[in-house]
């Protein structure tokens, strides 16, 4: 479904991001795996050795426009262009409002929102020049409901939805589609770090009767990146088994 396309996946070293990387590789794309450290990028690349001619690693500071532009130029140099940007890197937090520091709030907003802006800007410039592209952001079910702790996290995902809808309008004329996927509770390290009783409580209330697997989310990323979604932009696609707050 993605033969001949090139994708950048931020936070592609594990969890949902690594599932997106694998899904895109299985479907014929060239993929640049983004991570925060060379060591974790190398570990991810080692697990993708069967695709070694179509995969590379990058680890820019996602909030630094110059580093991101340099990394994206390296991708363009190796694979010819960037057609798909999956803004997946993100961090969570469950801190109470009474304990929250301004620094922690900024850290969450930086990686979850500012990085989406910086990477989208750098990719959109290339995509515009090349006649189009696709940007897919990672929202969350909490962007619909909020959550009862860690207020920066839901606030950041509300912002991701806002960026998605605004950029879809601004970039449509350049044939760049911008959508988001809003996962529900998904079995990754981020969820493993939550208290078990919390995961249990959330899971038992999900109408489809289970938490999501990373591949459930990756399938949505595949659809939105593919030509099947040619007329789809500005959408925040829930992939959560109809979970609610
Ligand atoms: P994870 O912690 O397993 O992976 C996060 C990824 O982001 C890692 O690859 C990590 O290297 C990268 N990352 C974190 N900080 C970074 C930084 N400063 N610079 C570069 N990369 C950085 O998490 P996950 O569960 O796979 O989450 C992926 C995305 O899905 C996040 O945006 C998260 O908010 C979202 N999400 C996850 C769930 C869930 O239940 N797991 C639910 C809703 C939304």
Explain what you see:
There is one protein chain. This protein has 245 residues and is an alpha/beta fold. It has nine helices and seven strands. The protein has helices at 15-26, 38-46, 65-79, 102-129, 142-145, 152-171, 189-192, 196-204, 214-225; strands at 6-9, 30-34, 55-58, 84-87, 133-138, 176-183, 236-239. The protein has a seven-stranded parallel β-sheet, with helices on both faces. It is globular and about 45 Å long.
Instruction: Give me the oligomer status.
Output: single chain
Could you say which structural class the secondary elements and strand pairing correspond to? alpha/beta
User: Bound compounds, please?
Assistant: nicotinamide-adenine-dinucleotide
The biggest beta sheet is recorded as: 7 strands, parallel
Helix content: 40-55%
Strand content: 5-15%
Shape: globular
Short description:
The protein is of the alpha/beta class and 245 residues long. The protein is built from nine helices and seven strands; from the N terminus they run E-H-E-H-E-H-E-H-E-H-H-E-H-H-H-E.
Key terms for this structure?
globular, binds nicotinamide-adenine-dinucleotide
Topology (SSEs and partners):
Layout: E1 6-9, H1 15-26, E2 30-34, H2 38-46, E3 55-58, H3 65-79, E4 84-87, H4 102-129, E5 133-138, H5 142-145, H6 152-171, E6 176-183, H7 189-192, H8 196-204, H9 214-225, E7 236-239
Parallel strand pairs: 1-2, 1-4, 2-3, 4-5, 5-6, 6-7
Helix pairs in contact: 1-9, 3-4, 4-6
Nicotinamide-adenine-dinucleotide binds at residues 11, 13-17, 35-36, 40, 62, 88-92, 111, 138, 140, 183, 185-186, 188-191.
